Amino acid sequence: MKLYPFKPGMPREWLPPKIFLIMRLIIIIMIAGFVQVSAASFGQKLSYTKKDASLREIFKQITLQTGYNVLYSPEKIEASKQIDVNFKNTDLKAVLEKLSDDQPFIYSIEDKNIIIKPKEPSFLDRVVDAFTPPIDVRGVVLDEKGLPLIGATVKVKGAQQSAVTNSEGVFFLQRVDDKAILVISYVGYFDKEVTTKASLTVTMEMKSAELNEVVVAYGKTTQQALTGAVTVVSGAQIENLPNRSFDKSLQGLVPGLQITGGTGQPGGGVANMVLRGIATGTDVSFGSTVRNPLIVIDGIPVTHDNFQFSNTLNATSVTNPLAQLNPSDIETISVLKDAAAIALYGSKASNGVILVTTKRGKAGKTNFSFRHQTDVSSKLTGKTEMLNQQEYLNLLYDTYKSTNAATWTDAGILADLKIKFPTTTTGDFYPESDWFGALYTDRARTISNDISISGGNERNIFYLNVEYTKQNGAVKGTDFDRKSLRFTFESKPANWLKLGANTSLSFNIQNYSNAEESAGGFGAAAVMSPLNPVRLADGNYKLTYPFGAIGELQNPVVVSEYNINKNVSYRGLSKLYAEANLLKYFTFKSDFGADFMLAELKEKNDPRFYASSQSVLQPRIAERDERRANVINTNTLRFDTNFKNEHSLGILLGQEAQIILQKQLGAEAVGTATTLPYYNQLNSPGYTTSGITGGAGRQTLLSVFGQVNYGYLNKYFLSGSIRKDGSSKFGDQHQWGTYWSAGAGWIISEEKFAKTHAPWLNYIKIRGSLGAAGNSGAVDAFTRFDRLTLKKLLGNNAITPSSLGNPDIQWEETFSWDLGLEMRFLKERISFSADIYNRKTDELIYITNLPSLTGFGSVLDNIGDMKNSGTELALSGTVVHSKNFNWSLNANWSSNQNKLVKANVPLESIASGLMANEEGRNFNSFYMPIWMGVNQEDGKPQWMAPNGQPTSTFSLAKKEFVGKPQPDGYGAIKNVFRYKSFEFSASLYYQYGLKIYDSSSIYFLNDGFYPYVNQSKQALDYWKESGDQVSNPRRLLNNTDLGFRTSTRYLFKGDYLRLQQVTFAYNFSKELLDRLHLTALRLYVQGHNLAILTKYQGPDPDNMNVGGSTGFAYPNQRSFSAGINVSF
């Protein structure tokens, strides 16, 4: 018996006969399985294409497409090179072989795992390394403009060796491995890795603007740590715009900030700036700025109320004080919107805060910059199409006939017109004159030049700018001349001490036009009859022209040439400061600032007007001197620390004292017909002083404040602040107000789950805030007192009350909350932000009408509560990015809903002009009769009566709320295209959902009430006979149907889309700059206010004032500019 060798003791025949066959099959199956596993290992396919792909990205694709896990140590592959890959259905083995080429690793496959291991150096590699000495590395780190970056950190990757750049951006590293990788980092810039060489030049790429430092109340912070809603505008965005003041340049750049009311007057009035809706009750007067945000320049709250000449008709707004500051001096503008951002400014901040930071020196080589720009204004925008001479004559004939056809024959009409209008020596009417051409220049030119020098070292830095601007207005005789100087100096006499000074001075001369006057300014040119000549046949001017049954028009060309309207002003803004670092964590800073203005205003009505037999204006000389001073002292103590690399804590304590002084003195003298025209002094022969006015005011404000900021792991942030203000403007019971805020922020993108599941999302942050701020801008030093005046009573001097005071008036207080979202994704190519907010203003201050029996017209009082709520969206991104071509897009949209939620007084008490207020409605809504067109039977005007039916009796018309002057939405869109060194950009601005009252239409469509002024083309559609379906009523001489009275007839939609700015520029490349020994050179041409798409029938809708109307304002111009910016 044979024994089976595998089973000792078991006879072979006892084994089943098929056992060997089964074993063979098992072995074959196992071998096939191993082969299949091997085939699977190298038979998997991969498709992936990308330039400069990292190994981490490729390994992730391998896992996703093949199911194999790639095991590696992240630290080991950090030194691996990025490669270009183009795998299309490529075997996994070929992929891994490709990846390991010229890389410091090898791979192996075990089961479903691909293991990445470092390569073992060969014997030859060890020998070469032993004989290859390390190298010394010297390099320079530059920003995008080629300027040195001071304090950049340069590290050797994977080692402890590092260096910091000096004042010239230079670093030096000794004995560095020639294969090492250097990592360069700098705040606000992306980290950059470069391969080691003996000599290096590294140009850094700036991160998105959101990552830069943000100037906030009493300091700076980072965008990450910010819990408030702040929009930052760089000085470069506005310095080349053709505006002489920065306020008008902000239109469209800041979500939530609506800007209107700016005029084309050289150096003219402050624009109306409303941030997140109207947050105060007053004031609707022309030129008022109490609704504008607080403006703080280098820590000094500045005065920006318009200079006004009270003796001028309509109290013309003369000068914009912000035009006395050079916009090219601005480094950044931070617009603070919510409670967390504004609460530290307390009682001055409910309208928001605009922080302006001016340029200062930087340590390093001295840098020289020169900027020149020439602007040429083109034809008017918003010019209404008027009747020509023949159309106007036909209209006049019809007007006479419809008044009394029996009385007015053709011969009689012609004879009367030849009495009203001048004729030639042959008895004919003069040829039609071009009044706009006579009053306006064909090309108004503006020239701006400024040169700046900056530099310093580690101990001292300086900045000096000298600027000259000469702006010629479109209206003849108007111009603005500004000479300005800014000097800043900062010194560190010791490592713990910093001393500094920042001073700005300007000298300004403005020759302005009383453009608001319909009697003699732009309005006169607009309505001047085409039968009136600019000059008579003998070459002399005709001084006055007929207007209506009463009144006259002055020749606007003569007004411009003969009259004097001049403002000479001086502006100084200066700050001294000291900052001391104490006990490592503490910083004490003391600022002393002053803003002062001196203005000398002079107006003269030429006596030659008085010589005209029809003139009703006497010769007049008026002078007014005004002085304003705003002095402020701020002391702060700041504690800042970080511990355990996890927690950051900042505590701020501060005290502030402010005093505001104002003084004015004015005098007026009236002359007689014998007065010679060249006399310009108040005491000139033939002039008698008719009035002397003056006044002085003093306000003091004392404040204490504090703030706490806390951060954890650089992703969780909390903030809180409180401020207490005391003001001398209020009574004893209401002198103090307390304001506060709380905010929080969470950077979600720093969480592990976000990095794991949304690696494409570079940055996402949510933030929220709530708090209270105040306002007292409408209250002056004498509001709480009754005012007296000296009058003649029964032939004797007597003191009588002139206005009623209110000792119980209180601060306005605005409580608000805000929720915000900030995102950047796709390698920061796209940025998005969104805010929703709610603001409620209590104790709204408003001018309240009083019953006539009180003997006073009105009083300033707290009349109720108001709410604003809205949404802001902003999107920016790089649509196309390639080596030579880039296309970037910026867009924003804002919407605000306003409502008066509580009114303590009747409707009639808070109605003003075109507007009124009622609970549940938009604050300052239009309130007027509704126009119901023309009665087809008799041609009379019609308005809606209380029963809803038409009435032709104006006194029976019912007033209704008919719209609002605030838009439902507004925003801007900007595209920038760059090809190599060329740049092209275009900006659009839009608004919709508002109404504007066109007060100029009272003259352009007056139905014959003012028969001797020109009419718009629309006036031709008027009623002539029964059954006519027309837009305008019948025409009668000196029409008393009152169709021109305030109603919705002149209320129009204010929607528009404007092509705001187009720029074409060439930025010289670094190679060319090096040859020219320059650091920057930019040439550009641009157009501003190029086109507008609107159905608004009046002048430019941007001329709308705070009262919701446009009239005969100095029109905005279309302008073209060319300029050069050079640095070396």
Description:
With 1128 residues, the protein is mostly beta strands. Among the domains are: 1-37, no CATH class; 44-120, 3-Layer(bab) Sandwich (Phage tail protein beta-alpha-beta fold); 129-203, Immunoglobulin-like (Sandwich). Helices cover 11% and strands 47% of the residues. The chain contains 15 helices and 60 strands. The protein has a 22-stranded antiparallel β-barrel. Strands 15-22-23-18-19 form a five-stranded mixed sheet, with no helix packed on it. The longest helix has 25 residues, at 19-43. It is elongated and about 125 Å long. Residues 1-42 and 309-316 have low confidence and may be disordered.
What does this entry show, briefly?
The protein is mainly beta and 1128 residues long.
Features:
Phage tail protein beta-alpha-beta fold; 11% helix; 22-stranded antiparallel beta barrel; five-stranded mixed beta sheet; mainly beta; 15 helices; 1128 residues; Immunoglobulin-like
CATH topology of the domain at 44-120: Phage tail protein beta-alpha-beta fold
Which residue ranges are poorly predicted, with pLDDT under 50 across at least 5 consecutive positions?
Answer: 1-42, 309-316
Strand content: over 45%
Q: Which descriptor suits the 3D outline?
A: elongated
Helix content: 10-25%
Write the CATH architecture name of the domain at 44-120. 3-Layer(bab) Sandwich
Taking the alpha carbons of the first and last residues, their distance comes to: 109 Å
Oligomer: single chain
CATH top level label of the domain at 44-120: Alpha Beta
Provide mean pLDDT, rounded. Answer: 83
The total count of helices amounts to 15
What profile does the largest beta sheet have?
22 strands, antiparallel, barrel
Please state the CA-atom Rg, rounded to the nearest Å.
38 Å
Count of β-strands: 60
